[in-house]
Amino acid sequence: MLRAQTQLPYTLPHSSSYILCHLQQTALFLTLWTYRDGNYHLDGAPTLTSQDFTMERRYLLGNEAIAHGCREVPVDFVTGYPGTPSSEVIDTLRATECGDMYIEWSVNEKVALENALAAAWCGLRALCTMKHVGLNVAADPLMTSAYTGVTGSLVVMSADDPFAHSSQNEQDSRIYAEIAQLPCLDPSSVQEAHDMVISASALSLELGLPVLFRPTTRICHAKGDVLLGAPKKDPRKGEFHRDPRQYVVIPAHTRVLHKKLLAKQPLVKKLLVEKGFNRYSLAGTTAVVTSGVTASYVDELLPPGVSLMKVGGYPIDETWLAHFLDQHEKVVVIEELAPVVEGAVREEAGEVIVHGKKDGFVPREGELTPEAVAAILEKVGIPPTRRFSPRSPVGGLPPRPPILCAGCMHRSVFSAIRKVFKDGIYPSDIGCYTLGLQLGAVDTTICMGASITIGSGIAHTHDGRDIVCTIGDSTFLHTGIQGLLNAVYNGASMTVVILDNRTTAMTGHQPNPGSGVTACGDLTPQISLDLLCRACGVAFVETVDPYDVPALIEALSEAKRRKGVRVIIARQPCVITARKSGIRRGTYMVDAERCTGCGVCLRFGCPAMERAGEKAIISVQCSGCGVCAQLCPTGAIILGVAGR
Predict the structure, then answer these.
(1) 483-499 b/e with 16+ CB inside 10 Å = b?
(2) Model confidence at 18, in pLDDT bands (50, 70, 90)?
(3) Among 102, 107, 556, 624, which one has the highest count of C-beta atoms within 10 angstroms of its own C-beta?
(4) Does residue 113 sit within a domain?
(5) 469-509: per-residue pLDDT in tens?
(6) How many other C-beta atoms are found inside a 10 Å radius of the C-beta of residue 524?
(7) What does the alpha-carbon distance between residue 448 and residue 457 come to, in Å, rounded to a whole number?
(8) Distance CA 44, CA 155 (A)
(9) How far apart are CA 305 and CA 423, in angstroms?
(10) Residues 213 and 297 in one domain
(11) What separation, in Å, do the N-terminal and C-terminal C-alpha atoms of the chain show?
(12) Residues 360 and 416 in one domain
């Protein structure tokens, strides 16, 4: 007997298989339990024992559910680089599992994956997390890891971000799995994300291959009821067994390993069907084929009489797919981002009419919503079970563009850059400081670490204008060092401003090598950005407090007078982490008698500054940085009580 917290009995009969159904939100999700050898098995997950017979139902964020699934495996070795929407998996694990798992925030995704791969070579159960653009950084080891395989298990979680909620593109990680010829699991709900990460580890162990796990933003950052198993404690030590033919990928070995990888593909496709990741139900001559979170929307909206195929794993078995298609006259494929499933369907469709992204029935960009899925079904002649009324935003509301926090150190740096380098070119990078765009001090943003390399590329075009790059401390340590080294080596002339707020702020304040602590809070040597820049060959390196505006302007002015690569390190803790650690600077107020209403403080852009009639006031958002007081030409801003 399995019991949830609600005390509902779940009886598992001794049959070949049993479908345990549970209701989450408005859609029905299926979990396949198989009885064999006297035990119950969950989609290839580790064998259930007596400690699992009491199950718990909790309301969890998707990433929290994934983290709990990792505890149920249990995973031994966890690495990653923070990136929304993936970050909370490691954040959750490091809050509960430090000491039982090895957990690290790595300096970048390539480093993270190589560490996790090494652990999997040593027989451990490893997890590596990142967001989709991080998979670009990790693509080099990912491709070759398919050749070497693993002796333990390796799950590579790449969280995709349809609609680019917090990303610079909308790429689809499933394509990487296709290129690498690795299995990929694509969850459709919070519950399934929990179940699939367990199954992914078991599948990796069974196949001897890394498995790509691809939740999307609407899975990672949704919340739902999740049926959980008991966390397990199964500490193990890894052991590396020397096998150069497997792990030394020289051409002679690679050719053999590639043949072995290709030979595994039929088994991978077969297992994804057998384990229930890919399944269908027949109900008519029209069918919907779907995957990921859109499968949940389709489940909710599909009327009776329409067949449904849900693709939860890749690659897709062509024979199995063709058998399904042969029984239909028309098929619509609904998936987010690239037409991965649609491409497979069209290859096997024959005379079957196929609608999807390639003929414009499904949008190629952005995320799909229940409203969008309902409209797609209507468009192809399938009446959805629910229709949505048009919605319009409430009129008259003021715009709320993204903006830096009150007292953020980045704001004063951008203000000073604009003052000193009036006609400069401002390449920037990925982080909170990308919001310098609102302050007119960001001209380019491409990918992690690209500010310095874009800047040096422009410098060599001899445009003639000053080039001032901005990059955060974590981003600099991620991929900025190589760009700086290259700029010095090749004689670029530019100023690099490292915005050192002592954390990885944008993704949730994770530590980095400059923070002096590890992911689990252990003290570690604090990397000196100053010495690192000097080791790269930079002769002019100055560290300055960005709240000291005169000193900041003087440092930038001195950099402007010099040639070659110059580095300014603007160092001040993030205002959020400073507040949480108890740092209080006092608050400021405006002396109404001195205030002339000139607007200098308002143009600075701090959200704590407001206008009341003709005068400025300071709200309770004030963090006490004091920069506005240094900018006020009449001395009207003084230490006092906020909000007056």
Answers:
(1) bbbbbbeeebbbbbbbb
(2) very low
(3) 556
(4) yes
(5) 999 999 999 999 999 999 999 999 999 999 999 999 999 99
(6) 12
(7) 16
(8) 14
(9) 65
(10) no
(11) 64
(12) no
Is 636:613 a contact under the CB 8 Å cutoff?
no
User: Is 181 domain-assigned?
Assistant: yes
Q: Which of 497, 629, 640 is nearest to 569 (CA)?
A: 497
Q: Are residues 126 and 232 in the same domain?
A: yes
- Strands 494-500, 307-311: parallel, antiparallel or unpaired by DSSP? unpaired
Spatial CB neighbours of 216, under 8 Å, sequence gap ≥ 6: 85, 159, 160, 161, 162, 292, 293, 336, 367
Q: How far is CA 186 from the centre of its chain?
A: 15
- Cβ neighbours of residue 244 closer than 8 Å, sequence gap 6 or more: 253
Among residues 193, 9, 13, the alpha carbon closest in space to that of 88 is found at: 193
* Listed residue (267, 316, 266) closest to 291, CA to CA: 316
Residue 452: Cβ-neighbour burial (10 angstroms; 0-12, 13-18, 19+): buried
CATH number at residue 330: 3.40.50.920
What residues have CB less than 8 Å from 327, skipping those under 6 apart?
282, 285, 307
Measure the CA–CA gap between 325 and 344, rounded to whole angstroms: 11
What is the pLDDT confidence band of residue 52, given thresholds at 50, 70 and 90? very low
Pairwise CA distance, residues 156 & 116, whole Å: 9
DSSP letter at 442 equals -
Give me the sign of the Cα torsion angle 483, 489, 490, 491: positive
* pLDDT score at 35: 36
Greatest Cα-to-Cα distance within the chain, rounded to the nearest angstrom? 85
The string of DSSP codes covering 320-381 is HHHHHHTT-SEEEEE-SSS-HHHHHHHHH-TTSEEESTTTTSS-SSS---HHHHHHHHHHTT
3-state secondary structure of 134: helix
**Per-residue model confidence as pLDDT tens digits over 131-149:** 999 999 999 999 999 999 9
CA distance 442 to 427: 6
**What is the DSSP-derived secondary structure letter of residue 435?**
G
Three-state DSSP class for 290? Answer: strand
pTM of this structure: 0.88
Q: Name the residue type at position 100.
A: D
User: Do 631 and 580 contact (CB within 8 A), yes or no?
Assistant: no
Query: Is residue 27 a contact partner of residue 36, using CB atoms and an 8 Å limit?
Result: no
- Beta strand extents in 256-327 (DSSP E only): 278-281, 286-291, 307-311, 313-314
Residue range of the domain that includes 460: 409-580
Let me know: does 106 contact 132? Beta carbons within 8 Å. Answer: no
Our count of domains for the chain comes to 4
- CA-to-CA separations, 173 to 111, 139, 159, 189, 558, in angstroms, rounded: 19, 10, 8, 18, 45
Within this chain, do residues 446 and 572 fall inside the same structural domain, yes or no? Answer: yes
